[in-house]
Design a protein that fits this description.
The complex is a heterodimer.
Chain A (H helix, E strand, L loop, with lengths): L9 H29 L9 H13 L9 H33 L1 H15 L3 H12 L3 H25 L3 H9 L4 H38 L5 H8 L5 H29 L9
Helix pairs in contact in A: 2-10, 3-4, 3-6, 3-8, 3-9, 4-6, 5-6, 6-8, 8-9, 8-10, 9-10
Chain B lengths: L2 E12 L2 E12 L3 E5 L6 H9 L6 E6 L2 E2 L8 E4 L11 H13 L8 H17 L15 H13 L5 E5 L7 H18 L3 E4 L3 H7 L2 E7 L12 E8 L3 H12 L1
Parallel strand pairs in B: 3-8, 3-9, 6-7, 7-8
Antiparallel strand pairs in B: 1-2, 1-4, 4-5, 9-10
The chains are: A mainly alpha, B alpha/beta.
Chain lengths: 271, 253
């Protein structure tokens, strides 16, 4: 049978999909065990037992200095920044994207500005944000929002502008004005696209979060990774990275589920 | 019969390309006008100008003796070949849309008694086009013919003075198309509609219309074909309405 025609069943897919991941984990454990056989205090490739030990003190024990459970404090701080940044960016992208996409005069006025902002690398703005907003939470949230909002905004505006012209004409022959077309025709059809835009923005949002935490912070997942790097604490860095990956996957799955759940009409005939 | 729509010395140009030149037309209330012609003869341009989607380069359009605003409005309904219905609304919501826009400028949604009234009116209209059993499905779950039925119901609920059809049945199977011909004739009679239909199908144009307009270029310059526009080269009045009605029933029987 040709490879293009081979369909893998659901249960087999799970098995085959897990295989390369398990293989990598096994390879790592062999390599780590090899290094530990030569040097029992090796720090570069820690064994799972070492990671569990290092993490358990972060997860279950209060830090002597701050009195907090560090792992949970880091997670909470990072998720709060990420959530605020994503929320602000999503709201801005939706409102401006709708206006830009549906109203040609707004597009004429704001389009070039949005394009100009979108081509600036957000990290280059970080010093400006730190100077203008201080080293606190505001600058970090602002970096995430400024970093992802322009791309999302342009995506939503493009999607709204590409709605069939026939729909807009039809709505007008049914008595709808600009405002009514915005809220009843453009907005509902932009929402599924917004979910996709948030999904795609999650990756960059994490990048900006970790960057800003690495540079100036006192709590957060990115801060911890860059802090313990000084002590070559791979036994903390690796579990933290895995935890970040897990959080990102959970958000992606939740958004996909929400998209299917909230917009049955966008799924074609088979729902 | 009184004149509902009159076009005087109408020109449509895109840059230096002349699409329509010197179109003079009077369309009587209650007539069913079919517009035919080769591709690029300006059939759809003429429809778009009457619809208000485009404004003519020169000339005037009068509806009921008043000049037409160069914008689409609820006095002219339209059914396109595709994309006429809203994919995110169910059949019933699609049909209620026009009533909700008129009744609620701020939210474009009705509540309570007004909603129940609009719902009843929309349901009755959907029953008239044969969609009474499919009120709560989305357009993506419907066949092309059902979508066009919905588009017609959606337009008729506003009681437009003129219904404009832009190749409405062009994408349908022959069997479904015959059903749709029956439906549109029946609705035209029941609601006393004035219909202008653009079509590629000459048989359809003659079997449905009370008047057939053929658009084409009168003159042709082989070195600059775009410098002459099309106009109505044939204007064929068919049987008047009452006579024609009896005749068609004979044919159907």
């Amino acid at each position: 049978m040709r490879w293009v025609n081979r369909q893998i069943s659901r249960s087999d897919r799970l098995l085959w999909g897990a295989a390369p991941i398990l293989l990598l984990v096994l390879l790592y454990i062999f390599a780590a065990a090899g290094r530990h056989a030569e040097n029992p205090s090796d720090k570069i490739l820690p064994l799972p037992s070492g990671m569990a030990q290092a993490m358990s003190s972060l997860i279950f024990e209060r830090d002597m200095l701050s009195g907090q459970y560090l792992f949970w404090a880091d997670t909470l701080a990072s998720l709060q920044r990420l959530g605020l940044g994503l929320g602000i960016a999503t709201l801005v992208a939706l409102v401006l994207g709708l206006l830009l996409g549906a109203l040609p005069p707004v597009r004429a006025v704001l389009g070039p500005l949005v394009t100009a902002i979108a081509v600036i690398p957000p990290i280059a703005l970080l010093p400006i944000l730190f100077i203008a907003l201080g080293l606190g939470e505001t600058a970090k949230v602002a970096l995430i929002a400024i970093g992802i909002a322009p791309v999302m905004l342009r995506d939503i505006a493009g999607h709204v502008a590409a709605l069939p012209r026939e729909q807009v004409i039809k709505a007008q022959t049914l008595g709808a004005g600009s405002w009514q077309i915005l809220i009843r025709v453009a907005l509902p059809q932009a929402l599924p696209r917004l979910f996709q835009a948030v999904r795609l923005a999650l990756g960059p949002a994490w990048v900006f979060l970790i960057s800003s935490e690495a540079i100036a912070s006192d709590v957060g997942l990115g801060y911890r990774i860059f802090l313990v790097r000084r002590y070559l604490s791979m036994d903390v860095i690796i579990p933290y990275v895995a935890w970040i990956a897990l959080l990102a996957i959970a958000m992606d799955v939740a958004l996909t589920w929400g998209l299917r759940r909230c917009f049955p009409w966008a799924q074609g005939a088979n729902h | 019969m009184s004149t509902l729509l009159s076009l005087r010395d109408l020109w449509v140009e895109y840059g230096d390309k002349i699409v329509l030149e010197k179109v003079d037309l009077d369309i009587a209330a209650g007539s069913f006008v079919s517009i035919i012609g080769p591709s690029g003869a300006g059939k759809s341009s003429l429809l778009r100008v009457i619809l208000g989607q485009e404004s003519p380069t020169r000339g005037t359009i009068m509806l009921d003796g008043a000049p037409l605003a160069p914008e689409c409005g609820p006095d002219r309904g339209v059914v396109f070949q595709r994309y006429s219905v809203f994919p995110h609304l169910t059949v019933l919501q699609n049909t209620m849309f026009g009533l909700e826009c008129a009744g609620s400028p701020l939210l474009a949604r009705l509540f309570g008694a007004a909603r129940a009234k609009a719902r009843a009116e929309a349901t009755a209209m959907l029953e008239a086009v044969g969609l009474g059993d499919n009120l709560h499905i989305y357009p993506a779950q419907m066949s092309g013919g059902m979508q066009q039925r919905l588009a017609i119901a959606q337009a008729l609920i506003k009681r437009p003075r003129i219904l404009l059809l832009d190749e409405p049945f062009g994408a349908l199977d022959p069997g479904i198309r015959a059903d749709m011909h029956g439906l549109i004739t029946q609705l035209w009679r029941e609601f006393g509609l004035t219909i202008i239909m653009v079509t590629h199908d000459i048989r359809e144009a003659f079997s449905l219309g009370t008047r057939v307009l053929a658009l084409d270029k009168r003159r042709h310059d082989p070195h600059a074909p775009h410098r002459f526009g099309a106009t109505a080269v044939y204007d064929l009045p068919l049987r008047p309405r009452e006579e024609e009605t009896g005749h068609r029933e004979e044919m159907e029987a």
